[in-house]
């Protein structure tokens, strides 16, 4: 049996609308998932809307947000090189993808939701019967995906993502371009969040797996594994 292939989606954006206010990929949301999938021997690919270099969110590189997983990534030149040479979505054959996993960081709000190549890739992965996942702001990449019948992928499905309450507590409501939680609800998503902000929360609705915040990254990846196992059994 061939190894499963996971596509991680990361951002190309390095700042908010004010170019002096830096943002980027929240590193632990990638590093934790990468470790979980690597332990299973999966093939892993990193893509970004434009391909090429990926900036890192400065706050994700500071205590207490930079955990052992993130530090290990930063110390591994082979890993840091991956973020300098990401692929564009158009070069990925969706037929080879078993799961697509959207990472977060506020930067993704500016380049995930309107990326037609990302939408196309995700739609084809989903409609082939495979797993679609996101963590934290990564769910912005799911907001505008429509299926062959014209419906939104997230319509009528249970999901989560970085909440507006968490945006308020992070002090960035005036920096972000939209209220992602509200947009998800407008698209018909059955949005759910943890009682306490910044605590791990993962919502699984069949092949759709979503985590609420950075604290949910490892658990989200583990639930992706479970969804892949269910998918494999169903295919037998």
UniProtKB/TrEMBL annotation:
The lineage of its organism: Eukaryota, Fungi, Dikarya, Basidiomycota, Agaricomycotina. Its EC number is 4.2.1.130. It catalyses: methylglyoxal + H2O = (R)-lactate + H(+). GO terms for cellular component: cytoplasm. Keywords: Lyase, Stress response. GO terms for biological process: methylglyoxal catabolic process to D-lactate via S-lactoyl-glutathione. The keyword Transmembrane helix does not apply. Belongs to the peptidase C56 family. HSP31-like subfamily. Residues 28-225 form the DJ-1/PfpI domain. Gene3D superfamilies: 3.40.50.880. This is D-lactate dehydratase. GO terms for molecular function: glyoxalase III activity. It comes from Kwoniella europaea PYCC6329. SUPFAM superfamilies: Class I glutamine amidotransferase-like. Pfam families: DJ-1_PfpI (PF01965).
């Amino acid at each position: 049996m061939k190894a499963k292939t996971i596509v991680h989606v990361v951002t190309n954006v390095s700042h908010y609308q004010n170019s002096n206010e830096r943002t980027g990929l929240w590193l632990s949301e990638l590093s934790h998932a990468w470790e979980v999938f690597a332990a299973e021997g999966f093939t892993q690919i990193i893509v970004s809307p434009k391909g090429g270099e990926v900036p890192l969110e400065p706050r994700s590189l500071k205590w207490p947000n930079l955990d052992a997983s993130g530090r290990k990534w930063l110390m591994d030149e082979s890993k840091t090189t991956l973020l300098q040479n990401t692929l564009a979505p158009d070069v990925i054959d969706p037929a080879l993808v078993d799961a697509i996993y959207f990472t977060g960081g506020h930067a993704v709000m500016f380049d995930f939701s309107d990326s037609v190549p990302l939408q196309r890739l995700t739609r084809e992965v989903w409609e082939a019967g495979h797993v679609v996942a996101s963590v934290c702001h990564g769910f912005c990449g799911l907001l505008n995906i429509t299926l062959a019948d014209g419906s939104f992928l997230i319509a009528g499905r249970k999901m989560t993502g970085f909440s507006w309450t968490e945006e308020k507590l992070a002090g960035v409501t005036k920096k972000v371009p939209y209220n992602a939680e509200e947009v998800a609800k407008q698209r018909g998503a059955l949005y759910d969040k943890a009682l306490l902000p910044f605590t791990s929360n993962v919502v699984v609705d069949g092949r759709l797996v979503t985590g609420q915040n950075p604290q949910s990254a490892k658990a989200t990846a583990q639930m992706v594994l479970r969804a892949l196992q269910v998918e494999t059994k169903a295919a037998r």
